[in-house]
C-alpha cells in the first residue's frame, strides 16, 4: 500500500503565487534547489489536475533540457480531468476522468510507489476532505503578497488538525513543515 503526500509552496500569508513575482518568489537558493532535485530522484507518481497539467506540460515542452522538468517528464504522472483528452502530449502521463478520490484510493491499494501532488488546489482539497492524505507538507517563503497574491491555498478547506512530523530550514530563510493531517468534523471540543 502506498502513501499520499500533498505538497505546497506558499507565501507567509498563504498564497501559491503572486502577480509580477518570479517563480519561488525569486528566493530559491542552492540548498532548496538541491533538495528538490534529490526528491525528484526518488520514484513516486505525481498527481495533478488539468490546470497544473497544462501549465507544467507547457513548461516541459518549452524547456525539455531543464533538469527538474526533465526529471518530471520521466516520472509517472496522473492527470485528473474531465476536460483533457487522450492522448496526452506529456510523456508518462495517464488521464483519469472519473472520481479522483476513488481513483487515488485504488492507486494506494494496488501500487507501492508513493503518490505526491503538484499544485492542483481543488484536487488536494478533495483528497484532504476524503481523508486519503497521509502527509501534508508546505515550504513557506518569507514574503507577504497581500496586494498581489493569487491562488490562496487554504480557502474552502475543511478544518484540519496537523501533527508536526518534520521541519527544516533551507538557505537560512525557507521553512519546510511536514505534518500528518486529521480532518475534523467540527471545531475542537465540539461534540466531545
Notes on the protein architecture:
The model has no long low-confidence stretch (mean pLDDT 89). This protein has 5 helices and 10 strands. The strands form 2 sheets. The chain has an 8-stranded mixed β-sheet. Strands 2-8 form a two-stranded antiparallel ribbon. The longest helix is centred in the N-terminal third of the chain and has 13 residues. α1 packs parallel to α3. With 192 residues, the protein is an alpha/beta fold. The radius of gyration is 17 Å and the shape is globular.
Q: What is the number of strand segments?
A: 10
**Termini distance?**
32 Å
N-to-C series of helices and strands: EEHEHHEEHEHEEEE
- Average pLDDT works out at 89
- Could you give the order of strands across the largest sheet? 5-4-3-6-1-7-10-9
Low-pLDDT residue spans: none
Helix content: 25-40%
How is the main sheet built?
8 strands, mixed
Report the C-alpha radius of gyration, rounded: 17 Å
Strand percent estimate:
25-35%
The SS-based structural class is: alpha/beta
The outline comes out as globular
How many helices? The count is 5
Reconstruct the topology from this structure.
Blueprint lengths: L3 E8 L3 E4 L11 H12 L3 E5 H13 L4 H8 L2 E4 L12 E4 L3 H11 L4 E3 L3 H9 L5 E7 L7 E4 L7 E11 L3 E10 L9
Parallel strand pairs: 1-6, 1-7, 3-4, 3-6, 4-5
Antiparallel strand pairs: 2-8, 7-10, 9-10
Helix pairs in contact: 1-3, 2-3
